[in-house]
Amino acid sequence: MFKPVIGLEIHCELKTKSKMFCGCPNNSDETRPNFNVCPVCLGHPGTLPVINQKAVESVLKLGLAINGEISPISRFDRKSYFYSDLPKGYQISQYKQPFVEGGGLKGVKITRIHLEEDTGALSHDKGNHTLVDFNRAGVPLMELVTEPDIKSGEEAVAFAKELQLILRYLDISEANMEKGQMRVEVNISLSQDNEMGTKVEIKNLNSFKAVKEAVDYEIKRQSEVLEAGEKIIHETRGWDDIKRTTVSQRGKEQAHDYRYFPEPDLPPLDLAEFNLRELKDSLPELPEEKRIRLSRNYGLTSAQADILVENSEAADHFEEAAKKLDKKKTAADYQTLFNYLTSDIFGLMAEKKIGIKELKFPPSGTAEVINLIGENKISSRIAKDVLKEMVETGGAPSLIIESKGLRQISDVGEIENVVKKIIAENPKAVEDYKKGKENALQFLIGQAMKKLKGQANPDILRKLFGDCLSK
Questions:
Q1: How open is the CA angle 318-320-324, to the nearest 5 degrees?
Q2: I need a surface site. Which of 36, 101, 300, 410 has the fewest CB within 10 A?
Q3: Mutual angle of helices 287-298 and 153-169, in 10-degree steps
């Protein structure tokens, strides 16, 4: 039986105002090619790099967040190779003394976190030309390397998603995979009887779906090769999104000898110069801490807490609204709030293609709707209409209800008259109900609700139908 042995290398562009070693803007939205460049990031002779302090602090924050060990002294190294997207002919990276070693996340041990500069971006036109845009060259790039503790594509995705969340919570990277701000590389081999197999690298996976599918495919491919009595080739492979397979790119015997040596233009960094205690104290509540607290304080399931944790702005909206619920709030009230937020409000936001920060009403408006439902002043049907109007106009729930005449009808006499009329108009449904068909009752209630424009108190309506039909 073969056992997968998987490690990840994850590159993330850091969110800084300027590039890693020069003053050029770090702007991923710049559409003019080769606009954010200067002699330093283009590697002109005689230019000297200056370390971006914010980038260093960002890596240290991540190291503290994953309980890594901060190196007392760290230094940069030159990684020498030739490629058309590398203007200097070398990349300033870290080899022997990274900023962070150790730590862990989602049960996976972390080997190291280091800092380097990104390369330019290549694009291929329809002819025989390749175009180079150096706007990205020199952007601060963090690389995190894990131990080979991962066993499946699902585990690889879980780790990468949690890292993405942490980067966003720390506000050090957008980590948008579609924009190339987070890139995943996988090292995978199959072991048998504690004997390690030959490692294969899969490069530049740019979506979580690609990560899972590439890992699962490669496990299957390597298993089939070994079961056929053949050997795994030590190579680099890529992921073909169309064929949904990994494809060979180059054998490792063709791999570069990077000839690392200490960067002569940059001194070693004494990390005691950075106030690590202050950085530690500045860390926000992290995703796992938030999950635990949301479940404990509001009775949410782990799956519900996950939904809010994945969108910190939604979590903030939920918690602010929860504070405004009636004083006698219960776990059921929190469930109602969660359901309306993540189903109705999220759905309306998706229709309008807006984020939660772009809502025209505050969390207290959401809470008011939930309170009105709890007080039997509006039905769930009316609540949906009110929320839709709130998203459109930003109006207060009570004013919308008043202006549109949406308040729930709780007058027993008025509802009873409608119930009797519906029963008289639908003898077939009445007969079906008396034969034990529960759907018939739902049909009758639906007809009454339609006549009452969804404004009847559903509890009163159901009771009156029960009373009238039992006579």
A1: 110
A2: 410
A3: 90
> Is 222:200 a contact under the CB 8 Å cutoff?
yes
Of 264, 280, 296, the residue that ends a domain is: 280
Tell me which residue of 302, 283, 288, 397 sits closest to 340, measured CA to CA: 397
User: Which amino acid is present at 203?
Assistant: K
Tell me which residue range forms the domain holding 438: 412-469
Cβ(27)–Cβ(127) below 8 Å: no
Dihedral sign from CA coordinates of 35, 40, 45, 47: positive
What is the C-alpha to C-alpha distance for residues 96 and 71, in angstroms, rounded to an integer?
11
The CA–CA distances, whole Å, from 468 to 417, 422, 434, 451 equal 11, 11, 12, 18
138 and 80 within one domain: yes
Rounded Cα distance between 93 and 80, Å, is 10
pLDDT digit string (tens) for the chain, length 471 residues: 899 999 999 999 999 999 999 999 999 888 899 999 999 999 999 999 999 999 999 999 999 999 999 999 999 999 999 889 999 999 999 999 999 999 999 999 999 999 999 999 998 877 788 999 999 999 999 999 999 999 999 999 999 999 999 999 999 999 999 999 999 999 999 998 888 899 999 997 999 999 999 999 999 999 999 999 999 999 999 999 999 999 998 776 555 678 999 999 999 999 988 999 999 999 999 999 999 999 999 999 999 999 999 999 999 999 999 999 988 888 999 999 999 999 999 999 999 999 999 999 999 999 999 999 988 888 888 899 999 999 999 999 999 998 887 776 766 787 788 888 888 888 888 888 787 777 888 888 888 888 877 777 777 778 888 778 776
Q: What total number of domains does the chain contain?
A: 3
Token pair recorded at residue 200: 């294969």
Residues 316 and 436 in one domain: no
Do 78 and 31 belong together in one domain? yes
Say whether both 77 and 191 belong to one domain.
yes
Rounded to the nearest 5°, which phi and psi values hold at 42? -90, -5
In order, the DSSP letters of 24-74 are SB--TT--STT-S--TTTTT-TT------HHHHHHHHHHHHHTTPEEPSEE
Tell how far CA 249 is from the center of its chain: 30
Same domain, 366 and 236: no
Token pair in block for residue 221: 């491919």
